[in-house]
Amino acid sequence: MKQKIVLLLRFCIGLTHAAQAQPLLIENVNWIEVETGHLHTEQDLLIQDGIIDQIGEHGTLAQLPVGTQRISGTGKYLLPGFIDSHAHIALGPVGGKLENRQVVLFITPDTLLLRNSLEQLVQYGVTTARDPGGLTELTVGAKRAVAEGRLLGPELHVAGTIIDTLHFENLTQRVRSEEEIRRVVREQAAAGVDWVKLYSGLTPDLIEAAIEEAHSLGILTVGHLHNTSWTEASELGIDNLVHVIVGNASYLPEEKQAAYAVEVSRGMQAAYAWFEMVDLEHPKIQELIQTLATNGTSVDPTLVAFHAAFFGDTDQYKENPALANYSPAMIENWSTLFNFNLGWTPEDFDRAHPAWDKAEQFIKLLHESGVLLTAGTDANNPWIVPGDSFHQELVLLRDCALPNEEVLKIATWNGAKLLGIENRVGSIAPGKEADLVLLSENPLKNIEATRTIEQVIRDGELVERHQNH
Prior knowledge:
- By secondary structure, the protein is an alpha/beta fold.
- It folds into two domains: 24-81 and 427-462, Urease, subunit C, domain 1; 82-419, TIM Barrel.
- It is 37% helix and 20% strand.
- It contains 14 helices and 19 strands.
- It has helices at residues 2-13, 111-123, 136-147, 178-191, 204-216, 230-236, 254-266, 269-277, 283-295, 303-310, 328-336, 346-368, 388-398, 404-419, and strands at 24-33, 38-48, 51-57, 69-72, 77-80, 82-84, 94-99, 102-107, 126-131, 155-158, 162-164, 172-174, 195-198, 220-223, 240-242, 298-300, 436-439, 453-458, 461-462.
- The strands form five sheets. Strands 1, 2, 3, 4, 5, 17, 18 and 19 form an eight-stranded mixed beta sheet that branches. Strands 13-14-15-16 form a four-stranded parallel beta sheet. Strands 6-9-10 form a three-stranded parallel beta sheet.
- The two termini are 34 Å apart.
- The model is unreliable at 1-7 and 9-19 (pLDDT under 50).
């Protein structure tokens, strides 16, 4: 296994990147001010040295630099590059083995999957992404390779190996004490992570120690939590919580908590059961939402990952045309061994489908209360294809009764705020980095128009488009 990881790192180092592009003028384009939803019509936008240099009415810009390349934007729509706040690039097929009479899960890192994931994200307009957990040497190595131009991909912000009380080979680092978790956080910070990922088995005392240590080192914290409630984690100062599945029994009515424990023992059925049992008008849920809003704790719902599980009895994901360009080994793994709804019966799906309505209501409540939401996908988990899944996520956010302009803000500006880089990316303005997406149709009218990509511009350079996108 270690040999494969070394080969993957060497593979990344050996790649090259194109030289700095010539000045670029996008003429007569309609561009969207995502912070407000305002559409600026018939504008020219000049890019120099990877930066948006000027924006003005068509034909009014100052003398253009010699050799400026021109692109017609007539009848087209320009957006900031998309930001996927939850794209795992360091995954691979999941397996299991016996160690000391216990089953240990493991991931086999996949060289081509890492490279192709990054390329696919850019092809679908994602110019910035966060990897919220994978082997530290792989996530940090990929981040540096992209930043140094040795690997094509979105700008990466990464967590390292996920910190938990349970062992999952090549995915988690096991800790048992506050001293241990502080040491692991320090080691990951020294390795170059931007975030530390705290996982479901951690108790509040361990979460508190990790947050305190990370923040002292200038590192952000993201949690996929169950043993520690979202309210507790927010009060302890966690920066970001992931997945629409809150999962903690304390938010359920007392008379339903025993029944929920039974569902937890069954496995992922607990995901839909929590929404079946929760009362979104209960004071505990209202307190949770207010706590998140007051503390500035953001939420990355990854709706598509759980929609794929809840509706896994349909063809929507397993027959997705985007799978034609995806890893056959991963598809086989999902079909036979690793799947979030593995073992579900028709009765499980009959319960999961209506439970999804409650998940949508929960997201709407978070948004209306001012909780910062971002667009993450959980890419490279079962049936979640990098890049393509981002546009699925936007449709699912719209289906939570969010206006199209708010979905576009979530997909761009909010992601930049989450990462603390809104001064550089996430919107269109002179002086900002030229990470842009040119569409043939207006996403303010139809959010599915985000798929009508004609050009992707990354750091001021046109990305070569593949015919199948």
